[in-house]
Amino acid sequence: TSASAAPGGLPYGAAYVADVRVGRGRWSHALTHGTFTFADVHGHIDRLEVRCAEGTEQPQYAEDAEWTLPKDWRRCELHVEAPRGTTFTLYEFE
Q1: In the 8-state DSSP scheme, what is residue 9?
Q2: CB contact set of 71 (below 8 Å; sequence gap of 6+)
Q3: Is 12 a residue whose pLDDT tops 90?
Q4: How far is CA 51 from CA 31, 46, 72, in A?
């Protein structure tokens, strides 16, 4: 990505960063932190879904949006539906 990291740290103070290229089907990721956002989206994100032990949310994707899950939600998995070849960077924050 074009983001720059502070020495010894991740870009923008993120706790986790993943560069993603969507293949066939949807892309899934076990969230390790309660706040996330997307950057450098090339292509189109069609649908988001967050499944946790406590419930399921379907946030509407919007450029530059940041989502924060309820603090007591555990074992959350993010599902992203996008056309094959779509790329993006996922940032998670504490």
Answers
A1: S
A2: 34
A3: no
A4: 10, 17, 13
- Nearest CA to 92 among 78, 81, 80? 78
- CA–CA dist 72, 19 (Å, integer): 27
pTM of the model: 0.87
Cα angle 36, 2, 41; round to 5: 50
Label residue 93 exposed, middle or buried (CB < 10 Å: 0-12, 13-18, 19+).
Answer: middle
* Integer CA distances (angstroms), 12 to 24, 54, 62, 73, 90, in order: 30, 29, 19, 24, 12
Contact 36, 12 (CB under 8 A): no
Write the burial class of residue 78 (CB in 10 Å: 0-12 exposed, 13-18 middle, 19+ buried): buried
21 with 87: CB under 8 angstroms? Answer: yes
DSSP helix/strand/coil, 13: helix
pLDDT above 50 (res 25): yes
